[in-house]
């Protein structure tokens, strides 16, 4: 029960209003540690209730330790604008009965308006790192009074190249600050360095580490011959699955736009979200999604983190994501706060190895689902090795055969969709390497 934390009555009122009946596992562990004032690093799965796990103890601290002459006292950094906006909204909901104010600072919004936000001196600022660095360039003292620093989805922030910015921002905050780092994985390449630089003897909390979790989400694959076949499978699913809202992921902006037009043509209430859209467009589509005016959202990975829409109960990976962690974040858009969800990945021959790698990384086997009326030619490899890769000719023999075949021949100029190859950079970050170590 939430009563065990002895949180301020104003916070208990908000918890009641939000209808949280019991703390989630991450809240059970992180709230007492944060209330004790420790630096914490928390490895928790997405959708686990981690936002309240850091916002509640932070608000409790603000209520009980008044500092009327301070500027901003809490800084929450998030990798994407969407996540920052959602964190901001959760802060507002949890602080509803406290009189504590929060401000949102992200790229894509007016600088002038944001300068006015700072002038109002909100106790909490939720921000993306890049824009905050711009503001600090103009006013280096802005964050000097920050006594609680939260780095949310730290792995993603570092993936996006924000390591230097994050460390620079941390240096702007009060030296005695409490720092809380939340990350889906502690395997991210640069994360140890940031932890060493920014956190002070942190308490480690691991709850349902990202791998092997998501028991409430049914995970399936459908084998496909090519993109046209995937289109047909997708249309079938949207017509035959029972879902309230669905999100379809693709790896590229171009494909996302293509799918959006395809689904619009098929009369779906569809929206699109990718990084080339303006912030206003992105906000607009998110609010249409929240209000239920859009039932199918096509998105790139921009949307895979932080997007919290309760009614999403179907996730489709039109292309497989390039790493196991990205896969987990995508499917985590459904099954929020313990609800049931379905995630279906469409896999063609060029994605088989990636599928095998994701399965090995997550230690799961994805159920193969067949639609009788839409069975294709591709059935997967005849035989697979213990690592899930197809049994094939040895590399040496293949090389020889290829050399022999192509001797004297012009190189083939076949147009192919680029396969979703796992990049080397992802190996430490969510995709098991194929090579034996
Ligand atoms: P998060 O992992 O912070 O993005 O939270 C995922 C969702 O769970 C959000 O919609 C929260 O409002 C919700 N949530 C957080 N804590 C609880 C709780 N104790 N009980 C029920 N829902 C919760």
Secondary-structure map:
Blueprint: H1 9-17, H2 25-35, E1 40-44, H3 50-64, E2 74-77, H4 81-94, E3 102-105, H5 111-119, E4 124-127, H6 129-138, E5 148-151, H7 154-159, H8 163-172, E6 178-183, H9 191-198, E7 203-207, E8 217-223, H10 227-240, E9 245-249, H11 253-265, E10 270-273, H12 279-290, E11 296-299, E12 312-317, H13 324-331, E13 341-347, H14 352-362, E14 367-368, H15 395-406
Parallel strand pairs: 1-6, 1-7, 2-4, 2-5, 3-4, 5-6, 8-13, 8-14, 9-11, 9-12, 10-11, 12-13
The structure holds adenosine monophosphate.
Description of the structure:
By secondary structure, this protein is α/β, with parallel strands linked by helices. The protein folds into three domains: 2-207, Rossmann fold, CATH 3.40.50.300; 217-374, Rossmann fold; 392-437, no CATH class. The chain contains 15 helices and 14 strands. Helix 2 (25-35) packs parallel to helix 3 and helix 6 (129-138) crosses helix 8 (163-172). The protein binds adenosine monophosphate (AMP). Residues 20, 23-24, 27, 47-52, 308, 336-337 line the site of adenosine monophosphate.
List keywords for this structure.
single chain; 437 residues; alpha/beta; Rossmann fold; 3 domains; 7-stranded parallel sheet; 37% helix; 15% strand; globular; disordered C terminus; binds adenosine monophosphate
């Amino acid at each position: 029960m939430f009563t065990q934390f002895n949180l301020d009555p104003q916070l208990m009122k908000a918890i009641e209003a939000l209808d949280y009946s019991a703390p989630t596992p991450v809240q059970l562990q992180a709230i007492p540690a944060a209330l004790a004032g420790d630096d914490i690093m928390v490895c928790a799965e997405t959708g686990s209730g981690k936002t309240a796990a850091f916002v509640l103890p932070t608000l409790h601290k603000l209520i009980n330790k008044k500092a009327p002459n301070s500027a901003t006292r809490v800084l929450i950094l998030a990798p994407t604008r969407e996540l920052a906006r959602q964190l901001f909204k959760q802060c507002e909901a949890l602080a509803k009965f406290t009189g504590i104010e929060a401000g949102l600072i992200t790229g894509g919004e007016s600088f002038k308006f944001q300068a006015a936000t700072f002038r109002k001196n909100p106790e909490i600022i939720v921000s993306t790192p890049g824009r905050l660095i711009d503001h600090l360039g103009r006013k280096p003292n802005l964050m000097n009074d920050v006594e609680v620093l939260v780095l949310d989805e730290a792995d993603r922030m570092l993936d996006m190249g924000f390591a230097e910015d994050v460390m620079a921002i941390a240096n702007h905050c009060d030296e005695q600050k409490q720092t809380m780092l939340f990350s889906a994985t502690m395997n991210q390449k640069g994360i140890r360095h940031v932890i060493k630089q920014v956190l002070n003897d942190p308490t480690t909390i691991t709850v349902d580490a990202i791998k092997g979790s998501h028991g409430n989400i049914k995970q399936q694959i459908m084998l496909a011959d090519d993109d046209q076949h995937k289109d047909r499978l997708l249309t079938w699913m949207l017509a035959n699955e029972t879902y309230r809202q669905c999100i379809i992921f693709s790896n590229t902006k171009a494909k996302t736009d293509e799918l959006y037009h395809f689904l619009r043509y098929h009369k779906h209430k569809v929206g699109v979200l990718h990084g080339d859209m303006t912030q206003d467009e992105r906000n607009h589509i998110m609010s249409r999604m929240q209000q239920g005016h859009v039932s199918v959202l096509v998105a790139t990975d921009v949307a895979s983190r932080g997007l919290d829409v309760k009614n999403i109960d179907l996730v489709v990976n039109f292309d497989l994501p390039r790493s196991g962690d990205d896969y987990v974040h995508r499917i985590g858009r459904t099954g929020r706060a313990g609800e049931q969800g379905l995630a279906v990945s469409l896999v063609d021959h060029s994605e088989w190895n990636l599928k095998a790698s994701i399965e090995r990384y997550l230690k799961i086997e994805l159920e193969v689902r067949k639609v009788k009326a839409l069975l294709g030619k591709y059935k997967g490899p005849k035989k697979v090795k213990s690592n899930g890769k197809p049994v094939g000719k040895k590399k040496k023999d293949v090389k020889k055969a290829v050399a022999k075949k192509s001797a004297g021949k012009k190189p083939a100029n076949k147009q192919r969709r680029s396969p979703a190859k796992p990049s080397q950079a992802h190996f430490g970050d969510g995709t098991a390497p194929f090579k034996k170590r």
